[in-house]
Amino acid sequence: MQISSVNDVKIYNLSYGKSLPEWLSDRKKRQLQKKDVDIQRRIELIQDFEMPTVCTSIKVSRDGQFILAAGTYKPRIRCYDTYQLSLKFERCLDSDVVAFDILSDDYSKLVFLHCDRYVEFHSQHGHYYKTRIPKFGRDFAYHYPSCDLYFVGTSSEIYRLNLEQGRFLNSLQTDAVEHNVCDINPVHHLFATGTTEGKVECWDPRVRNRVGQLDCALSSITEGTEVQGLPAVSALRFNGSLTMAVGTSTGQVLLYDLRSSRPLLVKDHYYNLPIKSLNFHEQLDLVLSADSKIIKIWNKDNGKVFSSIEPQASINDVCIYPHSGMLFTANEDPKMNTFYIPALGPAPRWCSFLDNLTEELEESPETTVYDDYKFVTRKDLENLGLSHLVGSSLLRAYMHGFFMDIRLYHKVKTMANPFAYEEYRKEKIRQKIEESRTQRVQIKKLPKVNKELALKLMEEGDDEAELASRKKKGKVLPSILGDDRFQVMFENPDYQVDEQSEEYRLLNPIVSKVGQKRKKKLLFERAAEEEEEPEGRPSSEEESSDDDKSWVDEVREKQKTGQPRFFHLKAGEEFRSFGDVARKQRLQKVSLEERLKFEEHSGTSNMADTAVGSKQLTFTLKKSEQQRKQQQAEREHHEERKKLRRSAGHLSSGRGRGRGWGGGRGRGRGGGWGRY
């Protein structure tokens, strides 16, 4: 639902919003209603209130229960039941409907005038009878007292078909060449027809004679009206017994009193479009006139604008629901619009809940739409050269700017910037070229700032995408490179990550092999970029350090020559053999216990090259005086025991070995030793 306010009159567009296709399942519709906010806010007052392509005309039955609409394609008539808020039936026809009318209080008697001269009658069950008129018809009217149908069209004659007798009667001969519209007064049954010459002829059905003629084309030309052709009568409507409204093909509406040949009021739409529909609102003495662009609501006594409605699609017909503030429009669009204006009257009985809904919406503020005005700021006025108009009646102060007439704004803007169209055209061409470029093969280029971080994120993004593709319902998270919030991180040099800083070393204590491979890849890319740059052109890597440039030169020369390079050791740098790398790789594969044994055996200290350096801290625990004395006493005792040595030579110099050395029978108590 869309809410707008024109001249402090609130207008509710009940048909605004997205419509769901009929072929969608109920489950899909429920899912869309949960996700889409526009679908949640829409109000489907009448189900399937639309046509396949275009709706040409729409009417409401006299009892107010049924709404009938004719449209295409294919040609059809649809009837909606307001008590059920749904479609009652649909009937397809052989050709397009030019005009139709409801002869009964409900839908049981219908008459259709087709574009191929056929007149078709429908009853409650469907098609009833079809006949043909001599010339192509444009409009018709039904005379209830005599049961006559009056047809007007591309002929000077007015054809009469009597439905009681079932035959054509003598036609009425007029002075006009062609007729566009006709209508019958509901009070005294005066028949009026509008011609292509801009005249209105009035006939009395009782005597079949013309009783009057009005020249509306001459009366529609007022002071300031631009005449581009002969105005023809395009719309005609009676109100009461004496008032008649005439619409012309040049966009004027004339109000007549049948007792006078001069119009009481001439209302101009200022769009130079034919008036397609005229309706009267008797409770408030208002006139609703509509062309293909806008519906204007104005007072029939003084012509003051009450409000206006401007739908998105072109208008074909307008119908007011009786004794209410609701109106329907037939448009050049599948959807038929439904507007509710509480200022015109209450909601119909079958949708009385709209009154409660609008009362709740009254509490929430909405933006005000000003008709034919443009909001400009002081800066806009300076650019247009209209600063001297501040304080005059041409500018109306509002908030931080001013409102000015839209016509004045367009004129001044055209004079101030005559090449605006050329700039707009160039911008559109540039956008088309950019769209075509997106279809080409995209080459990933690293940014100027934080190249290593960008390369790391790109590799991680590829890994995540591959992992998500393996899963059935995996979703790839958005990358930082494609997020606008982190765009400055790869453009501003102040955000460059310093990998040599102490903070970075503490956060990243271990440099992985993947990081080393990434660094080599980045160096090769830099070398390739510099090879592609022509001589004399400054390199894009001038912000990098001198060491990086030397590395790039060395890598490039090594690629060209393939010869080994010799390096100089810097001052304070310790030389290590080339076998250290292989030895360290072997040590990393063995267990910790074996590694410690190997280091103790070789007598080398554990010097590990890490991101925090290859330093080693040696310390000794401080012992108390009592512990040192105890350790000293133990060392002295061991030394004293080493000096006291006993000789065992007397054991082998005896007469015999004795019985204690395993030779005799008797053994000592000690098992293997004899007495000595």
TrEMBL record:
NUC153 domain segment(s): 483-509
An example Gene Ontology CC term for this record: small-subunit processome
Keyword hit for Translocase: no
Main location: nucleus
Keyword Repeat attached: yes
Compartments, as annotated in UniProt: Nucleus, Nucleolus
Biased composition (Basic and acidic residues): 547-560, 622-642
Sequence segments annotated as region (Disordered): 525-569, 594-676
Superkingdom as given in the UniProt entry: Eukaryota
UniProt biased composition (Gly residues): 659-676
UniProt family annotation: Belongs to the WD repeat NOL10/ENP2 family.
Ranges where the Nucleolar protein 10-like N-terminal domain occurs: 1-367
Keywords, comma-separated and alphabetical: Nucleus, Repeat, WD repeat
SMART domains, A to Z: WD40 (SM00320)
Signal peptide: none
Coiled coil: none
Protein name: Nucleolar protein 10
Location of the Nucleolar protein 10-like second domain: 369-417
GO biological process: maturation of SSU-rRNA from tricistronic rRNA transcript (SSU-rRNA, 5.8S rRNA, LSU-rRNA)
